[in-house]
Amino acid sequence: MTNLFDLTGKTAVAIGGNSVLGSAIASGFAEHGAKVAIVGRNLTKAQEVVDSIQSSGGEAKAFQADVSSRDSLLQVAAEIEAWSGGWDIVLNAPGKNSSTPFFELGMDEWDDIMDVNLKGIVVTCQIFAKRMIEQKRKGSIINISSVSSTTPLSRVFTYSVSKAGLNSVTQFLAREFAPEGIRVNAIIPGFFPAEQNQKILSPDRIESIMKHTPMNRFGTPEELKGAAVLLASDQASSFITGSLLRVDGGFGSMTI
User: Fold this and answer.
1) Has 159 been annotated as catalytic?
2) Does the global pTM surpass 0.85?
């Protein structure tokens, strides 16, 4: 049964793999045998993730890129291909948030968040999926969405909109790439304390979140590993594409 989740011989590219959630997922890939490229704007943080993976016996390398720049993504794709020959798994885990009220929102801020959370992932898929198709490499693309993509949350207007768009991108590309043997899915995490939401986690908001989460707690980054490894494995999820997999402690099932 463990062979279902064996990623030995696979190369995973973790865009945003230096983030709290991205690094946990990337570590999960490495723990199951994948060679992992950790891609982030901050090369120092990316290297820290690589060091952690290597200390546990995994294989990884740090790369620097900015998802809001096509040229930067093209450059890092070439660097990763030179290192590994190609890739089988792409994790899209960059993220940017803001609590600016709607009527105070400027379009520069809107564009900045959209460039990272939505446009950047579209461009990443154009570059990395195209090369997978050219190399005839079947595989998996995993996008990190959010509970705010289906239930808009107060104080995170642009972030919620960007993640709703990401869900649509996920399902569109699942249809687009299925004939090529590339599966595209998204994980919808619940509330995991991370860089993007720390600034808005006031005591009152935490109380409200807990009331809306049947499991009555935050998730831990490690709790995303199972879902990600499932979706990364060609054996375990061979017929799963276009799915939006919730890992949210029941948040999406709660009403009153």
Assistant:
1) yes
2) yes
